[in-house]
Amino acid sequence: VGSCDNDVGGLERMSMKCEVLGGSFRSSAEVVASAWQYIFSQSLLVVFLLAQMAPVFCEMWLQEGVIFAVRRLALQLLTLAPVMFIFQAKIIGGYTVNELRFGGATYVATGRG
Predict the structure, then answer these.
(1) Which of 3, 56, 71, 94 has a CA that sits 20 to 30 A from residue 79's CA?
(2) What is the mean pLDDT of residues 58-69?
(3) With a threshold of 0.90, does the pTM exceed it?
(4) Cβ atoms 65, 54 nearer than 8 A
(5) Which run of H or of E encompasses 17?
(6) Which residues pair with 70 in a beta bridge?
(7) pLDDT above 50: residue 66
(8) Bridge partners for 19 per DSSP
(9) Cα–Cα distance measured from residue 68 to residue 28, given in angstroms and rounded to the nearest whole number
(10) In angstroms, what is the C-alpha Rg of the chain?
(11) Does pLDDT of 96 surpass 70?
(12) 18: which strand partners?
């Protein structure tokens, strides 16, 4: 990771150039795109999917047997269950951040006294 040249001017600020290893300069968009490409590489995605489905697979294997566990894992992959879990985690995370940032505890009047 190198130094970034952040000019104060209008367009110069938007087209920030970053010096990467080797002395070459790349735009900040290229640097961010490279980071996202690394983060969402296929190997990391496979590790994430395995880590997410391993507890369910092991539990089904212990309770019902290996054939049932493989079927359950295949069904989850075919119905895109990991996508739903990612969406659910993002919703819960956003809700938690908003609760911590703005506060969420309010008095609910019940009319009992």
Answers:
(1) 94
(2) 95
(3) no
(4) no
(5) strand 17-19
(6) none
(7) yes
(8) 25
(9) 48
(10) 23
(11) yes
(12) 4, 26
